[in-house]
Specification:
13 helices; alpha/beta; Rossmann fold; 12 strands; formyl-coa transferase, domain 3; three-stranded antiparallel beta sheet
């Protein structure tokens, strides 16, 4: 394999959160030396589910392939490691070691500095505060709260972009001395609703929750059942609408004036949706996907969890790789979605046991 694009850069994670873990993962995947400076009981991610049969955290394994784990014997050992790092990643609560950073210090917190700076956060809060949560679910009930750690991953990606820019700038001689970068997970999540916020502010219109698979202004947009499997559908332009109707044998709907725009189709959703949902159930999702691709319709085959690792494009793109845990367990995990080709990323790798590399850095 070619030398990693970030070979020679040392990153020290003192935060131990999902967000700092994902940010560090992107550095490690491209060859940076990423050191988890862990407390005696390990980072919090070691204790977060889902868990494997040996009780080890699958989430921690995913975030920490190719990294080193150090449990400092003394405060001076920890200070020395932090002082020598090109980048130090700090988490929700400011770490006392952060003041010893002589390079780039990137803090990733729920709300950053400001009026909410001392507040704890959750991924669900981020979806609520950026307005996304309001649109998910049936109109007559409460919103559906997404599960998982998407907000923290988005915060980690945002921090990666900013900190990588600063680290590479310093490598080119464009800066010296300590630099602090602050990443707010809340502000990072606003990228998903920025257009809607501006539109609502300018128009004064608050769009109501319209139901499952109804996200204005695009329609149809969502995941729908087929004869076997599920299909992701996004139909925006008139050309896509005409091709979608032809694909399902609904040519009589294709050229109705009202249906030439997404907003018009959304106004007639109660008439359109039962018709195309009935047609979708007559076809296999995979067949529609390939036929739709040939007709340049944005359709996506949505695999079940059992089918996920066998999808042809995922195999071709090396979308998954193996994380090898200290006890011998092997876990299939997603690989980095951001690819360079002359200096490709590592796919998967070993997960360090707690303190495995401590002796190297004493």
């Amino acid at each position: 394999m070619a030398e990693g694009a970030l070979e020679g850069i040392r990153v020290v994670d003192i935060g131990g959160t999902i967000a700092t873990g994902y940010c560090g993962k992107l550095f490690a995947d491209y060859g940076a030396e990423v050191i988890n400076l862990e407390p005696a009981d390990g980072f919090a991610t070691r204790h977060l589910g889902p868990f494997l049969a040996d009780s080890s955290s699958a989430l921690h394994a995913y975030l920490n392939t190719g990294k080193k784990s150090v449990v400092p014997v003394s405060t001076s050992d920890a200070e020395h490691l932090v002082a020598g790092a090109a980048l130090v990643l700090d988490g929700d609560v400011p770490h006392p070691l952060a003041e010893h950073c002589s390079g780039v210090l990137c803090s990733i917190r729920w709300y950053g500095e400001g009026p909410y700076g001392t507040f704890s956060g959750t991924d669900a809060q981020m979806f609520a505060f950026n307005g996304m949560l309001r649109s998910i679910g049936v109109p007559e009930g409460p919103p559906i709260i997404p599960t998982g750690y998407q907000a923290q991953v988005v915060g980690g990606v945002t921090a990666y972009i900013a900190s990588l820019t600063e680290v590479l700038g310093r490598e080119l001689g464009n800066a010296s001395g300590p630099t602090v970068i602050e990443t707010s997970i809340f502000e990072a999540m606003l990228c998903f609703t920025d257009v809607g916020v501006v539109s609502s502010f300018n128009s004064g219109i608050v769009v109501p929750r319209l139901g499952i698979n109804r996200y204005p202004p695009t329609y149809p947009l969502g995941v729908f059942p087929c004869r076997d499997g599920w299909l992701g559908v996004t139909v925006l332009t008139p050309t896509q609408w005409h091709a979608f109707c032809a694909l399902l044998g609904l040519d009589d709907l294709a050229h109705i004036d009202l249906f030439q725009t997404s907003v018009g189709r959304l106004q007639a959703v109660d008439m359109i949706e039962p018709m195309f949902c009935e047609k979708l159930l007559e076809h296999a999702a995979e067949d529609l996907f390939y036929r739709g691709q040939a007709a340049r319709i944005p359709l996506a085959r949505v695999p079940t969890m059992e089918e996920l690792f066998g999808v042809d494009q995922f195999l071709a793109r090396h979308a998954f790789a193996e994380a090898r845990l200290p006890g011998g367990s092997v876990l299939t995990v997603p690989t980095t979605p951001f690819r360079l080709f002359a200096t490709p990323p590592h796919f998967g790798g070993d997960v360090a046991s707690l303190g495995e590399h401590t002796a190297e850095f004493l």
